[in-house]
Automatic annotation (TrEMBL):
<dbReference type="InterPro" id="IPR013106">
    <property type="entry name" value="Ig_V-set"/>
</dbReference>
<dbReference type="GO" id="GO:0016323">
    <property type="term" value="C:basolateral plasma membrane"/>
</dbReference>
<keyword id="KW-1003">Cell membrane</keyword>
<keyword id="KW-0812">Transmembrane</keyword>
<dbReference type="Pfam" id="PF07686">
    <property type="entry name" value="V-set"/>
</dbReference>
<dbReference type="GO" id="GO:0050839">
    <property type="term" value="F:cell adhesion molecule binding"/>
</dbReference>
<protein>
    <submittedName>
        <fullName>Coxsackievirus and adenovirus receptor homolog</fullName>
    </submittedName>
</protein>
<feature type="domain" description="Ig-like">
    <location>
        <begin position="23"/>
        <end position="147"/>
    </location>
</feature>
<keyword id="KW-0796">Tight junction</keyword>
<dbReference type="GO" id="GO:0005912">
    <property type="term" value="C:adherens junction"/>
</dbReference>
<dbReference type="Pfam" id="PF13927">
    <property type="entry name" value="Ig_3"/>
</dbReference>
<dbReference type="InterPro" id="IPR003598">
    <property type="entry name" value="Ig_sub2"/>
</dbReference>
<keyword id="KW-0130">Cell adhesion</keyword>
<keyword id="KW-0732">Signal</keyword>
<dbReference type="GO" id="GO:0005923">
    <property type="term" value="C:bicellular tight junction"/>
</dbReference>
<dbReference type="InterPro" id="IPR003599">
    <property type="entry name" value="Ig_sub"/>
</dbReference>
<dbReference type="InterPro" id="IPR036179">
    <property type="entry name" value="Ig-like_dom_sf"/>
</dbReference>
């Protein structure tokens, strides 16, 4: 049974106290068995399953409580419960910002699987997640680090400087969004595929410096911005023209 109505808030607070405030020296009988992966890296918009499977022992006779706590990377002091299983019920409206996105992987977590599904990941989901399982006299917990990376997006190309023969100019490329570390690569997509011999590329800033340009440097240039979770690109046309000549009439 999933409980989501506001009137359960007081009950949730009471259950949190029962689950977390345990006396020192309590026997740890139950075992969390999902110990392999504790660091996850995902792209924004994807889904992640944070594992928390467990085994109970015969001496674990009390009621089963499972609680997931989230500690944001940008605000470690703001520890918050995001979902709970207690007294045979699931409380999954503990955090309004995650309503509809956070679920137990198994709708019956009492069967030994308290793993957590987070849908439509956001950058703000980056942080530490702690699964806490209690069944008196046993209590165990496991921490998992999740990093949500944002793919490059809104990449734009531009030209800085005069497009006249013999001048120096810079092709610029920048993404509006994207998690570090972003890398930029330029290539020619029309005419000769190689970049001009005099060009200098800064992969970190996305700037391609072209010195002493000639008409042979004209063409369409493509920039690809990339990080560990995706790419984005833009193109721009360079049209190198003869230098303008000013005639001065002498009377």
């Amino acid at each position: 049974m999933i409980v989501s109505s506001p009137e359960y808030k007081m009950g949730i607070d009471m259950l949190k106290g029962l689950t977390l405030n345990l006396p020192d020296g309590l026997t740890r009988s139950l075992t969390i068995t999902s110990v392999d992966q504790s660091v996850f890296e995902k792209a924004q918009g994807e889904k992640v399953t944070l594992p928390c499977t467990f085994e109970l022992l015969e001496e674990d006779e009390g009621p089963l409580d499972i609680e997931w706590v989230f500690i944001p990377a940008d605000n470690p002091e703001k520890e918050q419960v995001i979902i709970m299983y207690a007294v045979g019920r699931i409380y999954n409206h503990c955090n309004p910002t995650e309503i509809g996105r956070v679920h137990f992987t198994n709708p019956y977590p009492r069967c030994g699987d308290g793993s957590l599904d987070i849908m439509n990941l956001k950058a703000a989901d980056t942080g530490t997640y702690q699964c806490k399982v209690k069944k008196v006299p046993g209590v165990q917990s496991k921490k998992i680090q999740l990093t949500v990376l944002v793919k490059p997006a809104g990449t734009k190309c531009s030209i800085e400087g005069s497009q006249e023969i013999g001048k120096d100019l810079t092709l610029k490329c920048a993404s509006r969004e994207g998690s570090p570390l972003l890398s930029y690569d330029w290539r020619r997509v029309s005419g000769p595929q190689e970049l001009p011999a005099t060009s200098m590329l800064n992969k970190n800033t996305g700037e391609l410096l072209l010195k002493n340009v000639s008409q042979e440097d004209s063409g369409v240039y493509n920039c690809v911005a990339s990080n560990r979770v995706g790419t984005d690109e833009c193109s721009i046309e360079l049209n190198v023209t003869p230098q303008s000549v000013c005639w001065v009439m002498v009377m």
